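QA checklist item 7 of 12: single-chain prediction sanity check.
[x] sequence parsed
[x] length recorded as 273
[x] structure emitted
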Amino acid sequence: MKHNALALSILCLAAVSPTVRGQSPVSKLNCNQPGLVVNDLVSFCQLREVALPPAGTFTVDAVNGSVSVQTWDGPGILVRAKVQTAADDCFLAEALAGQVVVDTSTGNVVATGPSTNGRQTWSVRLEIYVPATTGVAITTVNGSITVSDVQGLLQFHTVNGSVSLVGVGGNVEGKVVNGSIFIGVGGDHWAGQTLDVKTVNGSIEIEVPADCSAHVTASVVMGVINTNFPVQIPAGWGLFGRGLSFDVGSGASAGSAIRMATTMGTIQLRRMD
């Protein structure tokens, strides 16, 4: 299988790949603590970078590490990766990094690596820039997800990690097992039709413009439901598996729906005036 190789290690402590031509956003990724010894393991850090052509939809499949997606006005998609490994010595940690693959050959991102144990670990932190209208789907096992200003369809699934979506404008669908969800709809109007999110252990917090019109359903097993929309919610509502359904604005006639569900946690729907 052909992989887009992103960097070749040139130092025992850190390696940096060539940057994309032209002016690129300042990266939040760095290797400021190379060779750090933690629990008798020596760390190795490697930065990688690749430019991809624009796409209507873009998927990210990661295992260990956080995923950040932001918008930019560049010509396509910019992918940056921080590969962090740890092993018994520097050379083993560097060799382990060589087994961690950030595959972009399909125009998407798939981060994989070898099995981990008490003597070797690895993670890949991704920082991705896309055009604002790109649809994005993100899957992680262990790691948080943050997305800023994307106006296309957003889909997410993570097992262990929180999700924060800020300034989004399109439809949102997602599930979390252990972690909270925050969604802040950007601008003074929501152009999407559906916000449908679920978590097992964690809270859900959604902020929408004051003119939002939608049919809202919210349910919890152990927790409470709150909103500052003019809706009467009985004290303690949401405890013991109760659900709530109400309309905001023109409600169901607008054709939009906001659906929120958690097993253990608080649900909050806030109108931003």
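[x] summary fact logged: The CA atoms of residues 172 and 195 lie 5 Å apart.
[ ] second reviewer sign-off
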